Amino acid sequence: xxxxxxxxxxxxPDDFAWCYGCGRLNEGGYHFRTYWNGDRTETVYEPxxxxxxxxxxxxxxxxxxxxxCHGTGSASLALHRKNGYEPxxxxxxxxxxxxxxxxxxxxxxxxxxxxxxxxxxxEIHPKKWKVTTEVFAGDTLCAKGEVIAVVMPATFAQPK
Length: 160
Hints:
1 helix; 160 residues; alpha+beta
């Protein structure tokens, strides 16, 4: 992925940019970045050496986190677009929390191969979006997942 592509996580306000999976301000986190690729969403990630299950393979928790953050980021992209905006427009995007997460592990995920999450987004309620995600290691489909993403309640805002 090109670094100059604007991901939705680049637009999150600082108060909401700390997620271990996708928060740009979390120094130790994964820094997942989700963006449009046509009418689908995409996140590309290079697993690090410490993301090991057994030698040569990525641990499932990373895959679960990728599906989770890709799902909520994809929902944010979709609602932001529905509201008439794109990343880089200057408008703060809506934030989502995970209502449910389901992951099916189809094949072992090899280490030292770029992972690509590809999402399809469907609005199922004004405050809920379903994102189905396929996770590839190179050309190999390793996992499929589904996230029900819920618009973040205002009560989640940081107390001032």
